[in-house]
Design brief:
152 residues, alpha+beta, Small Protein B, Chain: A, 7-stranded antiparallel beta sheet, two-stranded antiparallel sheet
Length: 152
Amino acid sequence: MADGSLPIKTIATNRKARFEYEILERVEAGIVLTGTEVKSIRAGHISLQESYATPTSGELWLEGCTIQPYEQGNINNHIPTRPRKLLLHRKELRKLIQRAAEKGLTLIPLSVYFKGSNLKVELGLGRGKKLFDKRETTKQRDVERSLRRGEE
């Protein structure tokens, strides 16, 4: 790390989101967690499949994200699907909430990763794809795959 950047270790990605949504904008956010949640995430026990972010009274909350209870945790273990607060600069937050209020736009978590020792969530502002868009995406992926096979 001669350039001073922190190492990034990706824990989970939401592959389905890239298929279901056209991502217009990306933003990095911090997340408020308890100790057992962080330990469980370090072990890779997190799922972003059905998760989304919602603005509530000027704050952004991650809903539907499942973090399995920590195996060595005690009675103070966390609730797996509780809403978790996302941390952004106030200016970024206002801009994102305004954009998400536009018709058909949703805030979707794309990935969760450690940046140094801090856990970050990459949020994407996405518009839902129509069925024909999904077919086109699948078609492009198949073409790229067959080209790669032909080259190898």
